Amino acid sequence: MIRYLEAAWPHEGCGVILRSDEGAGESWRVVSLPNASPTPRVAYAFAQEAWLQVCLDADARREVVACVFHSHVDAPAVFSTEDRRQAAPSGISLLPQVSYIVVAIYGGRAVSASRSVWITGGFQTVPLLLADFRFEKPV
Prior knowledge:
GO molecular function: metalloexopeptidase activity; zinc ion binding
Protein name: JAB domain-containing protein
Mean pLDDT: 91
Helix content: 10-25%
Keywords: Hydrolase, Metal-binding, Metalloprotease, Protease, Zinc
Domain JAB: 1-105
GO biological process, one term: proteolysis
């Protein structure tokens, strides 16, 4: 997820994390999606065809969407007013069981992240440690 979001810079990258409980335990899959926003430097939107295909594939694999992720370009990792509006357009979460991760990308490098979840009528946000997402050794 982090590598994809860094590579998307100077545009916002986006995608989902899918979870499966099938078989020998829980498994996770990260799926990047094309950013179809007309203003990709300041917003993201899933390409409709790609989103439909992810949903069909997830259904066939018995997966659920656990998380929606996207980056903010040269801006803080906060769940913005626009993010909230898209996730809950009329004050009701479209995906109440799904969390949202925002990663701040400055100059092509992830510097911070946050996770927001829907709890009783609103989103609650907590910071995340980027070390939790990186598998490479620091240079």
